[in-house]
């Protein structure tokens, strides 16, 4: 049984896809000695002083901490990472729905993308999505992983026959295995083979995937990196949307000497992609507000 420990609220401007302003609420729930974080975001398209509401996003945790230990992610600093039970995640979901009176809203997205990796929690997430869909059939979902497997994708493909997915996302760092291991230590245990990922996407019944290219200064933002990516994914580019993301600053990223690439490099990469027939857009916040990229509030506490 969770109880609400605290709630943090902020607003921020973004460069995104179809929206550019976000009102953010972060909920901190306490269960014994653990503080579990969840997010609620309202996305708007802001033109002057006018706000056009685009969607409501509930970001749910699938775990406490994350064993992937990505060097830029706040969750990497949480010890004793473990999956959360379906019942507890659903309890958090219900609280956010009720607290924000979302029952009558149509444009609701449940995101399983930022707090725990699907690689470790796919069975839990599968059951959770079933449970939410059974009670709220109009809600759509987004899922993401740094380490997709055929088993994981098969489960999502099966769910997609009756559940509406807005985004099936693949995290991309670099095609260079050894370099990738420096950013995501779990890759030393289980390698993320880009060629296998490409083959899985090519053969999948899902018609559109998002590649989240996390652009890191001095690591994967050279012209050679851009060319390698464009060349590798060229055969399946019609099934892809590329999100070029700039990381937020976290204690983890500072400790590991990881910084986001410049907006200029992001723009150059997008232009390269567009010229080669890819769909691509930029994603970053105007200011670092400690409200995205992992369990940030938990880290601060």
Report helical residue fraction: 25-40%
Tell me the overall shape. Answer: globular
How many strands appear in the DSSP assignment?
12
- Spans of at least 5 consecutive residues with low confidence: none
Proportion in β-strands: 25-35%
Major sheet summary line: 10 strands, mixed, barrel
Main sheet strand line-up = 1-2-3-4-7-8-9-10-11-12
H/I helix tally: 9
User: Could you spell the SSE succession in H and E letters?
Assistant: EEEEEEHEHEHEHHEHEHHEH
N- to C-terminal distance = 21 Å
The helix/strand class is alpha/beta
Please state the oligomeric state of the protein chains shown.
single chain
Gyration radius, to the nearest Å? 18 Å
Q: Please, what is the average pLDDT? A: 93
How would the blueprint of this fold be written?
Elements: E1 3-15, E2 21-31, E3 34-47, E4 50-59, E5 63-64, E6 82-83, H1 86-99, E7 108-112, H2 118-135, E8 140-145, H3 150-159, E9 165-172, H4 177-183, H5 194-203, E10 209-215, H6 223-232, E11 240-246, H7 251-255, H8 263-275, E12 279-285, H9 296-300
Parallel strand pairs: 4-7, 7-8, 8-9, 9-10, 10-11, 11-12
Antiparallel strand pairs: 1-2, 1-12, 2-3, 3-4, 5-6
Helix pairs in contact: 1-2, 2-3
């Amino acid at each position: 049984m969770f109880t609400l420990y605290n709630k943090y609220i902020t607003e921020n401007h973004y460069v995104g896809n179809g929206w550019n302003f976000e009102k953010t609420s972060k909920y901190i729930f306490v269960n014994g000695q653990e503080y579990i974080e969840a997010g609620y975001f309202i996305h708007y398209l802001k033109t002057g002083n006018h706000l056009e509401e685009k969607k409501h996003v509930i970001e749910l945790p699938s775990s406490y901490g994350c064993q992937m230990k990505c060097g830029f992610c706040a969750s990497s600093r949480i010890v004793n990472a473990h999956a959360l039970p379906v019942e507890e995640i659903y309890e958090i979901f219900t609280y956010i729905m009720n607290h924000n009176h979302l029952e009558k809203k149509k444009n609701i997205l449940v995101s399983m993308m930022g707090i725990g990796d699907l690689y470790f929690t796919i069975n839990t997430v599968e059951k959770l999505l079933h449970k939410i869909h059974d009670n709220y059939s109009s809600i759509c979902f987004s899922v993401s992983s740094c380490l997709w497997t055929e088993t994981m994708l098969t489960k999502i493909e099966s769910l997609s026959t009756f559940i509406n997915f807005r985004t099936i996302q693949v995290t991309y760092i670099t095609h260079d295995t050894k370099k990738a291991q420096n950013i995501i230590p779990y890759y030393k245990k289980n390698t993320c083979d880009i060629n296998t990922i490409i083959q899985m996407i090519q053969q999948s019944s899902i018609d559109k995937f998002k590649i989240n290219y996390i652009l890191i200064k001095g690591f994967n933002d050279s012209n050679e990196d851009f060319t390698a990516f464009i060349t590798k994914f060229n055969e399946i580019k019609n099934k892809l949307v590329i999100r070029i993301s700039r990381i937020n600053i976290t204690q983890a990223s500072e400790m590991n000497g990881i910084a986001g690439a410049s907006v200029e490099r992001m723009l150059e990469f997008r232009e390269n992609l567009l010229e080669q027939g890819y769909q691509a857009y930029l994603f970053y916040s105007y200011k670092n507000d400690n409200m995205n990229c992992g369990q940030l509030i938990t880290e601060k506490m």
